[in-house]
Design a protein that fits this description.
The protein is of the alpha/beta class. The protein is built from eight helices and five strands. The longest helix has 24 residues, at 46-69.
Length: 200
């Protein structure tokens, strides 16, 4: 089974993925965004570095997922804190219309090279809560993030995962109103209620 946790920046994807993987005794597949040297440049100058940053993430994520799934046994349960289609959502929010059309032409064939998840868990959190969580975790590269940018991303992500129905797999939408251990436990419990029948 392959489960993806998706949502906006600061929505708690990694925290939930870690907790869920422990409960399921699954392999945790975290996104390797720290290795992307373009990300800090993008946060400081979005207009100049938007396309190279988004395109590099597209290639990096495809490579990471391809290498991972080619090396594991088919019956291994995997929990990831990202879904490949986030590439398309972030590109939609950050690129010009012409650059996005070019990006989309490359995204489609690459998407076909990786397995699609059995379940996507989308974390729907308000922007003010995202800002609080980002400030709390204190990553240096995220200091320049503004609420307006997070709102723009939220609209794009919400439309893709909650409205359009373009994802050909089950999507569980979890509304996050606060961040604490109880929230994480409740989210894990709800996810488990969805996947448990398939594990019998």
């Amino acid at each position: 089974m392959y489960i993806c946790i998706e949502g906006n920046i600061g929505s708690g994807k990694s925290t939930l993925a870690q907790a869920l993987s422990k409960k399921l005794k699954a392999v945790l597949l975290p996104e390797q965004f720290e290795d992307n040297t373009l990300l800090p440049l993008f946060y400081n100058d979005k207009e100049t570095f938007a396309f190279p940053t988004e395109y590099s993430f597209l290639i990096d994520r495809q490579k990471q997922l391809t290498n991972y799934f080619s090396s594991i046994k088919k019956r291994v349960t995997t929990v990831s804190d990202f879904h490949f289609d986030k590439c398309l959502c972030f590109a939609k929010a950050n690129l010009t219309s012409s650059d996005f059309r070019f990006f989309k032409k490359h995204f489609k064939p690459l998407r076909k090279t990786i397995p699609q998840p059995d379940l996507i868990v989308y974390l729907d959190a308000p922007t003010d809560l995202l800002v609080k969580n980002i400030h709390k975790r204190g990553r240096n590269i995220e200091r320049s993030l503004k609420e307006g940018y997070l709102s723009k991303l939220k609209k794009t992500l919400d439309k893709y995962y909650m409205v359009n129905g373009k994802v050909n797999t089950t999507i569980l939408i979890l509304t996050i109103k606060q961040y604490n251990d109880i929230t994480i436990e409740e989210c894990c419990r709800e996810i488990m209620s969805i996947i448990q029948p398939s594990k019998k």
